From TrEMBL:
Organism expressing this protein natively: Oceanobacillus bengalensis
Molecular functions (GO terms): protein-disulfide reductase activity
InterPro entries with a match to the protein in the record: DCC1-like, DCC_oxidoreductase
Domain of life (superkingdom): Bacteria
Pfam families per the UniProt record, alphabetical: DCC1-like (PF04134)
Name the record gives this protein: Thiol-disulfide oxidoreductase DCC family protein
Length: 129
């Protein structure tokens, strides 16, 4: 299993991000699981990621990336101009992650928390673990 995205399944911003990725991942190269799911917890453990992780995580090629690095690496695979965002990987990680953390720390306040999970189409459902 390569290119797995783990996301906060209770976060509206994260849910919107997953939908955004699905719509721009023309090759369907990503699969998804929520951090709160059993498979999500199992994958965190398998990759040696802290169980306290509540960030966007990309698992690929036996490695994991989190926060801004994960998001920008995902952008590199998306269709259209979104690939250009991956150029921000040249910005030092502490600076990128500082900005990421500000948004992540306020995501429930600014974007709300989900009451219900999205109901994906059968085609999209195949992409969730």
């Amino acid at each position: 299993m390569d290119n797995i995205i783990l996301f906060d399944g209770e976060c509206n911003l994260c849910d919107s991000s997953v939908r955004f990725i699905i719509n721009r991942d023309k090759g369907a190269s990503f699969t998804f699981a929520s951090l709160q799911s059993e498979i999500g917890k199992e994958l965190l453990e398998r990759f040696g990621v802290s169980k306290e992780m509540d960030s966007f995580v990309l698992l690929t090629n036996g490695k994991y990336y989190d926060k801004s690095t994960a998001a920008l690496r995902v952008c590199a695979h998306l269709s259209g101009m979104w690939k250009l965002l991956s150029l921000f990987l040249i910005v030092p990680r502490p600076i990128r992650d500082y900005l990421y953390t500000i948004i992540a720390s306020n995501r429930y306040k600014w974007f709300g928390k989900k009451e219900n999970c999205m109901i994906p189409t059968p085609e999209i459902r195949k992409r969730f673990l």
